[in-house]
Amino acid sequence: MMSPVYATNTFSDRLAQLATKIEFKRADSSEEREAIFRLRYKAYLREGAIAPNAVAKFADADDEAENAYLMGLYIDGELATSLRLHIASKQGTLDCPSLHIFSDILHPLLDANDILLDTTRFVADEGLSRRHRGLPLVTIRLCVVAAEYFGAHHLLAAVRPEHRAFYIRSFGSKVMCDARPYPPLLKPISLTNVYFPDQGAELYRRYPFYRSTPAERRKLFERPQNQHQVTPAAPTDSPVAIQSRGPVRRPFAEQYLACAAGG
């Protein structure tokens, strides 16, 4: 059941106001990526998850993988949150950050021809998070949009144990594994999962603003190397197929406001 804090009209109103100010972007330029690395550093240092370094940035080799997508959410042009997505499958790239730590759990899924959407490096600006309590919920929309585009089965999230309750309560996530060491972070990480073919419809029911258009999905995730990733056709009764039908919808801000008003 949805937490009362997310069910109040006041919170819904704040989400509606927030939706008019935000922009989702894939970080392709060096300037955008550097800004994300600096935001990560500040967030992880504040939480005691990393040690200080001289460059005041936090990045790793997984940021450069061909199946990596560094994503940012901007409020009035200011970087507010960021997360990193990897797409792993037997038909595409058979690797993602969570496989380094949870290979015993994830390799059987890949062997079954499932597609994994691996979410890591979810960080937020401290000041903007305090002003906009809905930022985590809105940011996770990127994972759902990506799941539609890539036909993903499993929406994985590598999270600290103290953050698991948010994923369980808000998205119906299941804990696949308790916390394990996750270098170079200083704190252990556990693995949660949403099985999208079964749970996608419920996500859209609870959060109508998670819906996306084919045009938005292409804008965020289409790039030349995607041509080498095989995305299976969705069953006609799946959330993926349902979302692909019909005319192109309105931009995200307008779409969310209409859904909030019952339109």
How does this structure look, described?
There is one protein chain. This protein has one domain (4-220, 232-260): Aminopeptidase (3-Layer(aba) Sandwich). Helices cover 42% and strands 20% of the residues. The protein is an alpha+beta fold and 263 residues long. The two termini are 24 Å apart. It has helices at 4-7, 9-19, 30-46, 97-111, 126-131, 135-150, 164-171, 196-206, 214-221, 239-244, 252-260; strands at 22-26, 68-75, 78-88, 116-124, 154-159, 174-180, 189-195. Helix 2 (9-19) runs antiparallel to helix 11. A seven-stranded mixed β-sheet has the order 1-2-3-4-5-7-6, with helices on both faces.
The value of Rg in angstroms is 18 Å
Given the structure, what is the number of helices? 11
What structural category characterises the helix and strand content?
alpha+beta
Helix-strand topology string: HHEHEEHEHHEHEEHHHH
The largest sheet, given as strand count, sense and whether it forms a barrel, is:
7 strands, mixed
Could you give the order of strands across the largest sheet? 1-2-3-4-5-7-6
Mean pLDDT: 84
The H-level CATH homologous superfamily, spelled out, is Gcn5-related N-acetyltransferase (GNAT)
Helix content: 40-55%
CATH architecture name: 3-Layer(aba) Sandwich
Q: Percent of residues in beta strands?
A: 15-25%
CATH fold type: Aminopeptidase
Low-confidence segments, ≥5 residues, pLDDT <50? 1-8, 230-263
Instruction: Tally the structural domains.
Output: 1
Per CATH, the class reads Alpha Beta
Report, as a whole number of angstroms, the end-to-end distance: 24 Å
DSSP, total strands: 7
What is the global morphology?
A: globular
